[in-house]
């Protein structure tokens, strides 16, 4: 679409969108003539604006009130006119301090959403990696009443979790201790998928006193190391959108907050970008969600040890400072990945 724009039209479109993002008001031809730095008359600018309006890149919300960018205009701006600014050193230091290695994954993810929200002044979002992607470091089983068992799990990403499981039969304290010792000795540092495959293979090949122990290990490890009903996604800063001029319509806000509460559609949108290279930007209807009309979602995948673990991003109005938000989202993804893999030097 933007290939048909001559340099003068491109410059004016960039100037108009930058000024609208900064001020939040429609931009008139006289204002553009002053701020563009071009030696052209307001009449010439009006003609160029009419052309841009005809191809759907700008719109006039009211008669003679100046123009604002359309979602298509923002798309051209982001794809070919944007001059991205690197994250300032002071901001980067603050981000790195908030995402320091050593904290458990859940704490890091919570810090990530809060950080994204605080720095963008919009909504910060991060998908939660499935626990099955992390190996466990140590496991203990503690018998409770009836058949219930308390599982104490330490994962290799420093996350500690307590879970209560209910096996198909009651296990004695001795059986639970034996099973924990067996799993710690033979499977620490391995994922549930690997553990399950090895145990089932060994169980098929074994017809001895080991069979009882292996059967217990299969059942207890599957329940203990499963997903356990964890959150799929964390959000922070939803109420910040209540102060955004473009989203002030109550019905629109209600739809948006209902989408945040359901999470499913937003999670599906984020998961579409899990194998993307770098930052992806969805503007308005590009999200595929009616509730996101008037919103932009900026996302980037994060990972550790060469594995993609999830996606993080910012949800805000289409009128956002893209030149700041895009590099901020990428830097946050890099820092979170480094924090989840302390052996890798931090960016």
TrEMBL record:
Keywords recorded for this protein, A-Z: Repressor, Stress response, Transcription, Transcription regulation
Residue ranges annotated for the Winged helix-turn-helix transcription repressor HrcA DNA-binding domain, each copy included: 6-76
GO BP term (any one): negative regulation of DNA-templated transcription
Keyword Transcription among record annotations: yes
Gene3D superfamilies: 3.30.450.40, Heat-inducible transcription repressor hrca homolog, domain 3, Winged helix-like DNA-binding domain superfamily/Winged helix DNA-binding domain
Residues in Heat-inducible transcription repressor HrcA C-terminal domain copies: 107-326
GO MF entry, a single one: DNA binding
Family in the record: Belongs to the HrcA family.
Entries under NCBIfam families matching the protein: hrcA
Stated role: Negative regulator of class I heat shock genes (grpE-dnaK-dnaJ and groELS operons). Prevents heat-shock induction of these operons.
Name the UniProt record assigns to this protein: Heat-inducible transcription repressor HrcA
Source species of the chain: Arenimonas metalli CF5-1
Record lineage: Bacteria, Pseudomonadati, Pseudomonadota, Gammaproteobacteria, Lysobacterales
Gene: hrcA
């Amino acid at each position: 679409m933007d290939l048909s724009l001559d340099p003068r039209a491109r410059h004016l479109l960039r100037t108009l969108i930058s000024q609208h993002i900064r001020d939040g008001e429609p931009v008139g031809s006289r204002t553009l003539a002053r701020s563009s730095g071009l030696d052209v008359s307001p009449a010439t600018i009006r003609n160029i604006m009419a052309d841009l309006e005809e191809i759907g890149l700008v719109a006039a919300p009211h008669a003679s009130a100046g123009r604002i960018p359309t979602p298509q205009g923002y798309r051209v701006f982001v794809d070919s006119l944007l001059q991205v600014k690197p994250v300032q050193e002071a901001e980067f230091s603050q981000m790195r301090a908030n995402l320091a290695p050593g904290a458990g994954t859940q704490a890091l993810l919570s810090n990530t959403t809060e950080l994204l929200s605080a720095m963008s002044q919009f909504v910060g979002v991060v998908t939660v990696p499935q626990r099955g992607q992390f190996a466990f470091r140590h496991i203990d089983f503690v018998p409770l009443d009836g058949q219930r068992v308390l599982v104490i799990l330490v994962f290799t990403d420093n996350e500690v979790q307590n879970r209560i499981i209910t096996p198909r039969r009651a296990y004695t304290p001795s059986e639970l201790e034996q099973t924990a010792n067996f799993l710690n000795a033979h499977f620490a540092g391995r994922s549930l998928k690997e553990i399950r495959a090895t145990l089932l293979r060994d169980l098929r090949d074994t017809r001895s006193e080991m069979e009882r122990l292996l059967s217990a290990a299969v059942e207890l490890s599957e329940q203990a190391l499963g997903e356990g009903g964890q959150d799929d996604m964390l959000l922070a800063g939803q109420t910040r959108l209540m102060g955004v001029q473009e989203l002030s319509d109550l019905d629109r806000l209600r739809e948006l907050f209902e989408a945040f509460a359901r999470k499913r559609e937003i999670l599906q949108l984020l998961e579409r970008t899990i194998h993307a290279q770098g930052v992806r930007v969805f503007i308005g209807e590009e999200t595929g969600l009616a509730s996101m009309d008037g919103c932009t979602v900026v996302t980037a995948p994060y990972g550790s040890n060469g594995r993609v673990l999830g996606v993080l991003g910012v949800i805000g109005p289409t009128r956002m400072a893209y030149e700041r938000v895009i590099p901020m989202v990428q830097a946050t993804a890099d820092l979170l990945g480094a924090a989840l893999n302390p052996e890798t030097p931090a960016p």
